[in-house]
Amino acid sequence: MHRIILIILVLVIVVVTGVITAEYYTAQPQFCGSCHIMKPYYDSWVKDKHNEKNVTCVDCHYPPGEKHALKSKFKGLGQLFTYLGTGTNVVRTPAKVSDLSCTTSACHPKEKFMDKKFQYTEKIPYVHNTHADKTIEGQALHCDTCHQHVRTEKHFEVPRMACYLCHFKEAKFNEGRAKCSLCHEIPVKPLQKLEEGAEPSQKTITHKTLEESKVSCESCHYQIIQGKGSIKKEGCFNCHEYSAEMLKKAEDKKSMHQEHVAAQNARCFDCHMPIEHREAEFMEVARKNCSACHPDHHAQQKMLIAGTGGKGTEQDYPIRHFNVKVNCFACHTLDDYDLKGVQVMKGNPDNCAACHTEDEKKLVKKWKEDVFDILEETREIEQEALKAIEEARGKVPDSRIQKALAMVAEGKENIKIVMAGGGVHNKKYSALLLDIAMEKFDDAMAELE
């Protein structure tokens, strides 16, 4: 009996010693690096400062108190079985690092690090708290939101592309979170030297003087921000099954950030296209961005074709072409030049006959003439209304003057649509808008009587 008890005791000691030894061995970075799919990550850790300070894999990848628990061992076994079952040779799912692992008293305690000023680069300072308090809707920033494994040679880093995405996406140039001075000091070096004999009134031009004079940074630096950080919806299906519902859900910014950023299930560029912040050919970038100088270009033409946007209308009056989805290229096929010599595609009346009859060619000219005649009449009544308002100042209450001005403003809006959009895009709707404009002008004059 004593022999059996002794044997059991020895076996227990052997098993416990084996478990302790195995637990210790499997918690060592060298064990992680022995798996070939983990080799690149191990090699980058060896060169990292965390290795120098003896911070091991389990110190970061498992929260405090969990690294020796069975749960952590099952996680490791899960990775092993995934590898054995699929034969994959890369890590498909990025590792999650709990904030608790980073902010322990032995590492980066919040009370010491959140308000401390760091140098991201030689010229760019960084304070954690200023970023933690300015999250985008749905986000909850974690340490590994910014500190990511991006390149094989570095275990993790803060990639500049991540900074650019948050600072520039849907932000106005040099405003708010995209303000240049948040990261850059305004240079004081002169941009040009004054010529000898220059007048005393001439001033040396520096970035500082330009800022004080409220000269837009876009004037010279428009090209340094390229890209919109758009969503790659096709990227959803690298992780999820395809569905129309998934595509629609991808437009819900709050939900997407909650499920991916806050829950640490994806990295920024799994979903977003990058935004670049670098020098580029300065004229071409501005020249090719039509909307920079022509915001909402051709909006009035679209309004006329769709029969929408006018003041005082009770319903939409689309042209028949709109209902069958005829677009600009159906009519605008002539290579021509505008008054400034800029090449444009002009409307070709011959295209009317291709769909309709030969007689339709003549209609375009007639529509233009008819709308022009109504427009001239409308502009004359507009001038009468404006004259009446000026003559009424000081003679009638200001409230009535303001009411008359509001009526005139609505009439002007209709004129603007017809003039900018070209009445030919929808003659009937153009005539209706001008009729309403004339009524507005008449009502304005009646208000002053």
Any key phrases for this structure?
two-stranded antiparallel sheet, 449 residues, 51% helix, 6 strands, Butyryl-CoA Dehydrogenase, subunit A, domain 3, mainly alpha, single chain
Tell me the domain tally: 3
Low-confidence spans: none
Q: What is the rounded distance between the termini?
A: 122 Å
Number of strands: 6
Radius of gyration from CA coordinates: 35 Å
Number of helices, counting only DSSP H or I runs of 4 residues or more: 24
Q: Give the helix proportion (percent range).
A: 40-55%
State the shape: elongated
Series of secondary-structure elements, N-terminal to C-terminal: HHHHHHHHEEHHHHHEHHHEHHHHEEHHHH
What would you call the structural class? mainly alpha
Q: Which percent range describes the beta-strand content?
A: under 5%
Please list the strands of the largest sheet in the order they lie side by side: 1-2
Query: What is the oligomeric state here?
Result: single chain
Summarize the biggest pleated sheet. 2 strands, antiparallel
Whole-number mean pLDDT: 84
Question: What does the model show?
Answer:
Helices cover 51% and strands 5% of the residues. It is mainly alpha-helical. The protein has three domains: 2-93, no CATH class; 110-190 and 204-287, no CATH class; 299-328 and 361-447, Butyryl-CoA Dehydrogenase, subunit A, domain 3 (Up-down Bundle), CATH 1.20.140. It has a two-stranded antiparallel sheet with strand order 1-2. A two-stranded antiparallel ribbon has the order 3-4. Strands 5-6 form a two-stranded antiparallel ribbon. Helix 19 packs across helix 23 (398-421) and helix 23 packs antiparallel against helix 24. The chain is elongated. It starts with a helix and ends with a helix. The mean pLDDT is 84.
